[in-house]
Amino acid sequence: MKRSFSSFALLLITLQAIQIIPTAISTTKLVPADISKVKAWVAKNINDFNDRKSNDSKGIPRIVLDELLASAEDRLRLIRVAKDGFADFTTISDALETIPKDNKRRTIIQIGGGEYWEKITIKCNKPFITFYGDPMDIPRIVFNGTASRYGTIYSATVAVESDYFMAVNVAFVNSAPMPNVNRTGGQAVAMRISGDKAAFHSCKFIGFQDTLCDDRGGVDELIIQNTTIDSVAEGTGVITAQAREHVTEDSGFTFIHCNLTGLGNNTYLGRAWKQRPRVVFAYTYMGHLINDEGWSTWKFPEREGYASASFPSFSDFKLIY
């Protein structure tokens, strides 16, 4: 996903649920192996929003949302964007301009179907923003930035630097062409996420190299659930490049109930981009594209065995050929 050494790493990531949170996954309430039971598990282990804002029947405080988020969710603002003009704005960028700095309200930008040719950066002083697309006509936000023109980090079609961002039913696309294996600068990010406490539901990320960039990959826990990752690497491909530096850091990527598909047979689950990367795949189906070795040390053979990249247990995944 991020800064892969392959010339063509990922084409399509279809996410049902992805979250970026500031702490590691709790091991006290394990996600069930049967995906059909996940919704029931969520209902049991994650309190309803309204329940998390009040005390229980005995007056004992519940585990509640942080005060900033609870306050923001109580004061919603809706902005409509549509290409046909029957809305508040015709571009997402114009809608974002109306959101004040140091925003304290959950602001939902409802986006109509169609393609929006825009390069968007949501600065850190504009939190609590939601992009909401029509599930029957998912909007596509498209741009063609590359590392050779902008630098990898700034090539993103959409960059989110603020906290509490959410996107639902939106496709984030970097339309730059498949890079030449003999040239540098072909990285083309579709989404860069730098803020904390972000969530994506039923979204797509489309691009050829460095498609999804968690810009705080060495700091936060990235949880990807019920997701299909479709690789189009014609040579060597890599799905993850996690940036943990020390074993004491609570960071890593966790894939739960995912599906890895694509071309070829030489795609690695991850590479040792930094000293102590940590990536976990649980209850994940893997197609013939995954290299038998699983993990790559990339250009650093001395990092062999240093990565904490694992499967929770053998029964948690199936390797399909």
Automatic annotation (TrEMBL):
Start and end residues of each Pectinesterase catalytic domain: 80-212, 224-299
Keyword Hydrolase annotated: yes
Keyword tags: Aspartyl esterase, Cell wall, Hydrolase, Secreted, Signal
Location (main, coarse): secreted
Pathway(s) the chain acts in: Glycan metabolism; pectin degradation; 2-dehydro-3-deoxy-D-gluconate from pectin: step 1/5
Pfam families: Pectinesterase
Superkingdom of this protein's organism: Eukaryota
Gene3D superfamilies: Single-stranded right-handed beta-helix, Pectin lyase-like (2.160.20.10)
EC top class, as a word: hydrolase
E.C. no: 3.1.1.11
Cellular localization per UniProt: Secreted, Cell wall
UniProt cross-references to InterPro entries, sorted A to Z: Pectin_lyas_fold, Pectin_lyase_fold/virulence, Pectinesterase_cat
Extent of the signal sequence: 1-20
Record GO biological process: cell wall modification; pectin catabolic process
Keyword Secreted in annotation: yes
One Gene Ontology molecular-function label: pectinesterase activity
Similarity annotation: Belongs to the pectinesterase family.
This protein's name: pectinesterase
Source organism of the structure: Populus alba x Populus x berolinensis
Lineage summary: Eukaryota, Viridiplantae, Streptophyta, Embryophyta, Tracheophyta
